[in-house]
Protein: Phosphate-selective porin O and P
Amino acid sequence: MPLQESSRNHRNSKSTGKILGVLLSFLVLPLSGFSQDNDSSNAPLFSKDKIKLLENINIGFDMRTEFQAYTFRGGDQYYNGIQFENGFTALSISGQLHERIEFNFRNRFNSSSEVQSLDRLSNDIQLAYVKVKAAEKLDVYIGKMFAFYGGYEYEFSPLYVLEFNDIYSNALAFVTGAGLSYQAFDNHQFRIQVLNSRTLLYKDLYGDIVAENIEEPIWPVNGVVNWRGRFFDGKFETNYSASYSNEVKNRGTYFFTLGHKYQDKDFSLMYDFQYSYEEIDTKGIINNLLEENTIAENVLYVENWLRAEYRFSPKFKGLLTLMTNTAYDNYTSTKDHVRTSYGAIPTLTYSPFKTIDIQFFIAYVGRYFDYTEYAKANFNVGSFNRNELKIGILAPLNLL
Structure:
């Protein structure tokens, strides 16, 4: 290659290098300045405000898992079984977003996840509501919540109840609506709610059921009033409620609960009386005995529920639950007694840890369903009993 051409190429190369250098300087200098001033890695992942908010948030994972052995005897049932069971598994999130605003959310995993056609939430979402402190003594609830029914059986989370009595085993406990809570005096609180009486639309719940005067109401609504009282320095409490819900047009359920509780150091005793007169059977106990596409009308359920708890030591606690339910058909006319059910659940729990609430338990669940001669003659049923032995773990785990 001639020397002049080589020298010219070298000069061109140097000129090109200078141009590239200038261009890179224009690109790199702004980027380097941006990196120094706005690099996200230099900022905290959670701001102080967000960390403060997390201090008021509670996240819990609740589970009850048990090994059970059970038998059915009587009627047309003769069955034995042994299995592991997830009795309750749920994730709950609650907290205070503002000095006047709280929220509560709970998703139970071992429940149906089908979206309900009336309230548009899946059935496994039990709680999804906001609580607003409107005044010093007045709270407002809006969303999907537990009804303000009285009694103490209903106030227990399903985590702590191996088996509910017949009404609450079949009742719709979590529904959407609004409520007020007023602390009238130090020892007396009054609550009121207006709720949907069901989560499904009429056609999805009843389909082609044949009965007289069964029509869709304009609003399937449930009204609940509740009074909670405390006496004798809090040793004795009352929890009473009355409600009316119209399941279908001009026909509904009248439900009354009288709850009582005595608490003294290591011993507590709770007693609930429940009365549910239903112009349309919403619990299904009698309705399930009828032919398909029919519905029971004018039924009555009367219940008694008793629970005693005694803490023998910091690690051992004994429980005893007793329950009865009496069901009547055609209550406004012939008052036909259909059945009486009985239940007994003695339980012993062991809590080995001081800093975390994990309990191991052993329990017996005994149920007897005694059908009357009227029921045997009209519904072709027979009395039977169910016996279960449960050994398991109960763990309300606070994750945050």
Notes: The two ends are 78 Å apart (CA to CA). The longest strand covers residues 77-98. Residues 48-398 form a domain with the Porin fold (CATH 2.40.160.10). Helices lie at 3-38, 48-54, 166-170, 202-206, 373-379.
